[in-house]
Amino acid sequence: MHYTKPALTIEDQVKLIQGRGLAISDPARAVRWLNRVGYYRLSAYLLPFKTPGSDQFAPGATFDEVTDLYKFDAGLRLLVFQATDRVEVALRASITYHMAHALGPFGYVDPTNFAPTFQHAEFMRILDHEQRRSAETFVTHYRAKYTSERHLPIWMATELISFGALSKMYENLRARLRKQVAREYGISQPVFVSWLHTLSYVRNTCAHHSRLWNRELAVKPELPHVWTAEGVTNDRIYCVLLILQTLLSVVAPESKWKERLKAHIAAYPAISSASMKFPPDWTQQKIWE
Q1: 45 and 160 share a domain?
Q2: Which helix (H) or strand (E) holds 24?
Q3: How far apart are CA 286 and CA 289, in angstroms?
Q4: C-alpha torsion 248→68→265→59, nearest 10
Q5: Digit-coded pLDDT (tens) for 76-130
Q6: DSSP helix/strand/coil, 45
Q7: How many domains does the chain have?
Q8: In terms of domains, do 132 and 271 share one?
Q9: What pTM value is reported for the model?
Q10: Rounded mean pLDDT of the chain?
Q11: How far is it, in rounded angstroms, from Cα 185 to Cα 65?
Q12: Of 13, 188, 213, 266, which has the maximum CB count within 10 A?
């Protein structure tokens, strides 16, 4: 099968969704939205308002509901990205500190300090590429002063690698080191490893402005037994919000992030929290009080 759909003008895109039953009270506003957001990106927010299995919209569906959902998701992404940023910085500091004291400034260069299954050579190749292309002042200064050193000390190296690479490095550290880091947060290290992988995935989802609100997580975290006993699942964004608040309570106990999250959810009462796997009484749970 060959793709035969032609590119449509913005005005024709508006006519298309109107013809499929979406009520648009202000076509000029719809044109502005499609012009600045794009039909394909907005289509992810059109889909929930369609009749299942059809291109037609459910009776009564409006363009205002679509844009409200888009704005809700954009605000949720921003909140998640801000929290993930705060947590990521703290995790980098924790992992770096424990590695530096246990293995020395260049211990990460030795593959025997990691699990045999860790692709250490590939990790070093990525790190070498990052430091060669880096314009960071600390890299330039270090290279100018320590000309006989091939590698950066760990506290510089971990500033250059991605969150995903950091989580993989942590996963493959010696178990004793993993436990030391996880202990700071009161989490068992197998669960903590999975949390880092999930947060890296969610961070990238936010950075690419992708749909978040009802997304099924491609990288599912392990959950503490007490959470699963309360009915929390690991396939939608609610469990990530729980993870972020749990970690923020350690790294930034004065943070007002949970208040801003609750205010954001309350500002869009028409949007189903069930599709994000929020429990009905989530605001009454201790972690959110």
Answers
A1: no
A2: none
A3: 5
A4: -140
A5: 999 999 999 999 999 999 999 999 999 999 999 999 999 999 999 999 999 999 9
A6: helix
A7: 2
A8: yes
A9: 0.93
A10: 95
A11: 40
A12: 213
